[in-house]
Amino acid sequence: MPRESNRLPLAFSCLGHAYMHMFTAFYFVIVLALEDVWQRPYHELIELWTLGSLLVGLAALPCGWLGDRIGAANMMIVFFVGLGLSGIACGLVEGPSALFLGLTAIGVFSAIYHPVGIAWVVRSAKARGKALGVNGVFGSIGIASAGLVAGALIDGFGWRAAFIVPGAVCLVTGLALLVCHLFGLVPDGVAAAREGKEESRGDMLRAVGVLFLTMLIMGVVFQATQAAIPKVFDLRLRDIAGDGTFGIGAIVAGVYTVGGVTQLVGGYLADKFPLKPVYLGTFFLQVLTLTFVSALGGLPLIAMTAMIVLLSVVALPAENLLLARYTPQRHHSFVYGVKFVLAFGTAPASILLVSRIQERTGEFVWLFWALAALAAVAALAALFLPGEWRRARPMPLAAE
Question: Which one of 3.60.15.10, 1.20.810.10, 1.20.1250.20, 2.30.29.80 gives the CATH number of domain 3-191+199-387?
Fold first, then answer.
């Protein structure tokens, strides 16, 4: 494959990762403005995203199946164009019912990215840990920019702009990918190197079972944390953030930017060290950080929430490579689809958990205690992954 073809799939995949996470996170800031505009309570408005967040997970499985059959580039074009149009539509609605439908469409098109985009990176890259780390940084940038962009657009132009402007940018990116694909610049990629020897069937089944459990559990932790952090900052950091949504959005952006950049560290660790201890260690540290966040305020709260994000993203390259190692390559998009059904399918339950705890207590102390307990369960489960005593050497695979 020509050199430029190796880089363009990674470039578009990185942009897609950023857009996907922006579109699935910016409503948690936009909702703070809608409380005043529509005079509806927070817990009622946040639940408008429940079905959309569910479909981000559930629709990932058929999207992965389609990605294995019609090609990653074609599916990514559908992703960019569909997500962009959905965002624009959300900015044009007149009430909660229509916004519910628009957010549901965002969930459907967002579901395309992870099973298709991640498999695209794995097939196209030579240093897969590094490529996944770079790709992961863009995902964290998407989450970070959600708060910053949404807050700035709301304060400057109103809540509608926070949907319409990102939607237009995403749509233009999709048209650019279409042009590149028509000129043959972004093929679906070739097979990358397999990590080490062929794994036994027993190890494969055990590893996949453990990974599916840890991904399900940490999906709850990730979704609940992402949903709650803007409101936690709204409750505990007004003396730092000031009035309006931009200050809260800026702090959220800073937290996810600092945490997200460290995914490069995760990629380096995944390339250089055994994957199991890298993966396992992040869960044990998450237990501590989530416990601290339950009671902190001020700058320590900001530092600990950044640490939660840092640990979450450092685990991802190792997780994706473990999943690739213990599953057949021809089914990678489908398997990544299963992963994100588990990871994002927990979103409705996570959002309802956030909503109910905030409604009944006015705070989130019990939420973070519960999430710390879940992280402890994930750490114990990860102990049962097949052991690794040294870093496996890659061996070549035939092109797909």
Answer: 1.20.1250.20
